Amino acid sequence: MERQRLIVAVDFGTTYSGVAFCHSTQDGLRDSEVVSTWVNNGVAPKTPTEIRYFDGKDPLWGAEASLPCERRQAKDTAPVYSRFKLLLDPTIYSGVYESRPKPWSVRRRLEDLRIEDSASIKLPPLKSAIDVSSDYLKLLYKDLMENRLRKRYPDTLDITPIEFVFTIPAIWSHKAQEGTRYAAKAAGFCSRTSDTLSLVSEPEAAAMFVLQAMREKNFSRISAQKTTLKRGENFVICDCGGGTVDLISYEVEEEYPKFMLKESVMGTGAKCGSSYIDAAFKDFLLEKLGPGCKDEGWFQKLIESGSTFMRTFDSIKRSFGQTTNDIWFLELGAEVPDNEEAGIVDNELEFNANDLKALFDPIVDNIIQLIRDQVKIIQSKQTSEAAPTIFLVGGFGESQYLYKRMVEWAGQQNPPLVVVNPTES
């Protein structure tokens, strides 16, 4: 008889991280538990992948790291470190695809933006990306073991092996995979001799979720657009995160007695996640305010991770495509000369829907190109006339603007494609 164990999935993301777990005796999706409450972040499925260091005391992590009150207590001397995960694999600056030139005058290619943005990700003195990742994961591990699993399984945790499963980008190099594994183990994962750790690509993890829903005949739980997938049909998983976008395609090999899949197109991806919209926004700000402010202290505080200004922009970014607002006024937090042509009046920057669209579109164009290539390979190989279904998942996959653009593109294909935005991905 197989020994009972706990299975813990860790989504260590570029911008947000999450955890889910279940006991090996439990039954499928309905019994899995997603951590949905975090320190100082209320009810949320994930917590920010951010950390702040202090002399003589423990770091703050997650939502606590960027609390404005904590910044005041630290007198702004302790920076917030974020997006350090991307530096685990600095070789994937590009994802093969170049975007169209941006509408504003800088007109740099997305590839140039990727390179400069990766170079701008800050690390603490004398610490590597693996060190910072390990420090963050150590705090997550402590919270998981003490505040989640210990309370959930008080009598059996010490004698129950844990199988930790970390998700990684499909395009992660072998070096980055080993860096992720090393950081996790240094953080305490597998510090108990009975525990194990494995890695699975992010789109594969999403495909497993879809497969399980089909096996449980519970497909409607995740999809309102399509009720089932049949034998011979293909589907593309497009996992859009904060740093990377990862894809993989599968064919339904069997429906009965249980659903079985086979890979039809290998995993691909690129660095074109939602955080590159933030990078493009900072580029946009420099054009409006002038390149001379780039190294000024007030500007660096304005655009730092967790600042009120960037949190406001993040809220605007998340609601884009599902709100009637088409103009916003962002407080710059400094004495800036009026420039009506640039939209700057009374220390506020006017920012409209066309500006936001110009930030989104190069990223969205890259994502659609990645999907187009997967679909092209499927159609060149499949014998069925059924069009492949596209599953749009991940944090950035929740963007209504991205979803609407993708649906518009999919509807123009011959035959038209269905885009599914799962409700629980």
Automatic annotation (TrEMBL):
Q: Which InterPro entries match?
A: ATPase_NBD
Highest taxon of source: Eukaryota
Q: Which PANTHER family match?
A: ALPHA KINASE/ELONGATION FACTOR 2 KINASE, HEAT SHOCK 70 KDA PROTEIN 12A
Its name, as the record gives it, is: Uncharacterized protein
